[in-house]
Design brief:
Oligomer: homodimer
Largest sheet of chain A: none
Structural class of chain A: mainly alpha
Order of helices and strands of chain A: HHHHHHHHHHH
Radius of gyration of chain A: 21 Å
Distance between the termini of chain A: 64 Å
Shape of chain A: globular
Strand content of chain A: under 5%
Number of strands of chain A: 0
Helix content of chain A: 55-70%
Chain lengths: 236, 236
């Protein structure tokens, strides 16, 4: 960090502009090639600065992607607000649909979700992880509140569990749904491997519907499942 | 591959013994350090051979781990046979418990599941992926049959969906449940980050119960959820 190999952006607005240019380059490259195939050198090359210059703005490659993940979560929860603002109470199908679609429309977020615990959070300072976690946990809470507004018969904790489970699945299913081109061909051409093909949005929507239908009947408390289902029915 | 830098194992049983030694070294290292932190050089060093010698037995580092994943899946499904052989019909709680525990008891399998689509399948030959996929898809089918034996009211496809969803979740939740030591400390010490702590087995068990309870009531087909729940009840 002691070298002076480039023209430093000294004014705050210059600095912000440069940070934005870095994030934007990383975003474009990751969308096109997948997060795993984008290095710090690729990002620096795209911005037109040296790697060491880039490291004046971000700790590591992973911190750049962690920033993009936080940004993508905030954008994702906006789509939930838009899709669920006018939802009728009890519209579980709509809840599952809006959440699945919000993930399906955001391939970069889904790609990043899988990389977050595996790579991104492991190569940045604890302070950067803390900032990221406060954003992502806040977004999950906000999404849970939106679900709770539509499904008031669920508890807040159940809504949170529902959103967090779909988020985890979005990350892992996206990786399965987007194999390398050679593998996509292999799976499509071999009948024995058809099952390996997964479509993200319909699969998430269906799992969302199953979870919403199961949260109340499976509540712990010792009632036999039958009686709990009947109670749920009676309460409708 | 043209260099002759080591004493080649020429007899089939010698070759098998060397392959086993390589797999065993990779298994031990990955369990101790996590899959992401084990390189081909680490494995070769542990076996006491040169990297180039190791590449006579396996295509890449990723192929070694793909073999270990297949092996771990076969071991996982054995635990399901053992746990579900004597299950009473309709014992959904037991099904969720046995599957969650079978993942919880196999940290290496869970770690590998997340790496499989992200890394492992991307750096081996299509033929190696095909062999792996036939094993893993076969195991999921076998597990689905076991679930179907206990829950005959579910369709085969629903049982498959159930098992595949829990398998995806096991992979992603394990990564979240096992952060780097510095992060584990951070999450535990900061009340605002407590939600970031996840316990794998109870969380998988609970999600399994929710999914099993929701599969029938959420069946597509246009019946209102209420009527479908009532039909489910009446059929018991």
């Amino acid at each position: 960090m002691s070298q002076e190999t480039f023209q430093r952006a000294r004014r705050p607005e210059q600095k912000l502009r440069r940070q934005d240019a870095i994030l934007s380059a990383a975003r474009d490259l990751a969308l096109r090639r997948g997060v795993r195939n984008v290095s710090l050198a690729d990002i620096a090359g795209r911005v037109g600065i040296h790697k060491s210059a880039l490291l004046r703005y971000f700790e590591t490659r992973e911190q750049i992607f962690l920033e993009l993940t936080a940004e993508a979560w905030l954008d994702w929860v906006k789509a939930l607000h838009a899709g669920l603002a006018a939802a009728a109470p009890g519209a579980g199908g709509l809840v599952a649909d809006v959440i699945a679609q919000a993930f399906g429309d955001r391939p970069l977020l889904c790609d990043l979700i899988a990389h977050t615990p595996l790579n991104l959070e492991r190569n940045v300072s604890p302070e950067a992880v803390r900032r990221y976690k406060l954003t992502s946990l806040g977004v999950i809470d906000e999404a849970a509140d939106l679900v709770h507004g539509v499904m008031p018969e669920l508890t807040q904790a159940e809504c949170r569990e529902f959103v967090a489970t779909l988020a985890s699945l979005a990350g892992s299913l996206w990786q399965i749904a987007n194999p390398a081109p050679a593998l996509a061909e292999l799976y499509a051409s071999d009948p024995a491997l058809r099952q390996a093909c997964v479509e993200l949005t319909p699969r998430l929507r269906r799992t969302g519907e199953v979870l919403l239908a199961g949260l109340i009947p499976s509540r712990p408390g010792g009632n036999p499942a039958g009686r709990r289902l009947a109670t749920y029915e009676a309460g409708k």
